Amino acid sequence: MTTFIEILEAIGSFVLGAAGRIGIFLAAALVLAVPALLAALAWRALRRVPRTSLAHDARLAPNHTWLAPWRRGALAIGLDEVAERILPSATSVELPRPGMVIHRGDPVVVIRAGKRAVRVGSPVDGTVAAVNRRLGRSPGLVKEEPYGRGWLFAVAPEGESWKELPGGLRADSWLLGEKRRLSHFLEDELGVAAADGGELLAPAPALLGEEGWDRLVAEFLTKAA
User: Fold this and answer.
1) Residues 99 and 127: beta-carbon distance below 8 Å
2) What are phi and psi of 64, to 5 degrees?
3) What is the H or E stretch that residue 31 is in?
4) In this predicted model, what pLDDT tens digit does every residue of 174-209 receive, in sequence order?
């Protein structure tokens, strides 16, 4: 009887010891895995967050495009947040061909939003160096990430006149004024009052009739760069 009890005690001690070791192993694995899992989740979240702040060395053009140094002296070009606000959506994007010689004001990009379209003019003279082919598969990036993956094309500029365009604090101030001007324009066209702070809460540009839409595009998106 005593031998049987001793055997049971030995088995119990072994099981408890094994369970303890397994528990310690699992706890250690969990401690190591949790930071890695959190880091992975944080990375995925960061990749999903649209880049909404303009690069500090970017410039803004009157037709609400931005220009920023890219590769080998070329400039990346995209839409700023006022243009993004005006577009009701982006269902397709037509881009220029690399190697094409373009001039300031030339309509080189066509962004379609259903039946409506916006022709984006080049803010500088130069030669198209590259285009964002990702937009062929995901045109919505133009609205979702206008300062990031929604860039339009890159151009090798002729000269450095683009440096005279507002950048830094000048760009911030100009953009703020343009946001207010857009809100006032929409107030007048739609006969509604803007919310406190001077910005409409609803996506009002999509509510404009065809004549109002044409006036909006002419006023904000087709001015000579």
Assistant:
1) yes
2) 60, 40
3) helix 2-48
4) 999 999 999 889 888 887 655 544 444 444 687 888
- CA geometry: angle 83, 79, 100, nearest 5 deg: 130
Q: Copy the structure tokens of residue 107.
A: 């309509």
In eight-state DSSP terms, residue 64 is S
- Helices 168-190 and 210-220: crossing angle, nearest 10°? 160
Q: What is the sign of the dihedral through the CA atoms of 104, 109, 113 and 115? A: positive
The H-or-E segment that residue 50 falls in is none
Predicted confidence band of residue 167 (pLDDT cuts 50, 70, 90): very high
DSSP category for residue 167: B
What are the tens digits of pLDDT across the range 35-48?
A: 444 444 343 433 33
Enter the tokens of residue 139.
Answer: 């045109």
pLDDT tens digits, 79-91 = 999 999 999 899 9
State the Cα torsion 62-143-43-134 to the nearest 10°. -100
pLDDT at 191: 79
Q: Which residue reads 């500088």 in tokens? A: 124
Please classify residue 89 by burial: count the beta carbons closer than 10 Å to its beta carbon, then call 0-12 exposed, 13-18 middle and 19+ buried: middle
Give start and end residues of each alpha helix (H) in the chain. 2-48, 81-86, 134-137, 141-144, 168-190, 210-220
pLDDT band at residue 134, thresholds of 50, 70 and 90? Answer: very high
The token pair that represents 49 in the structure block: 């967050």
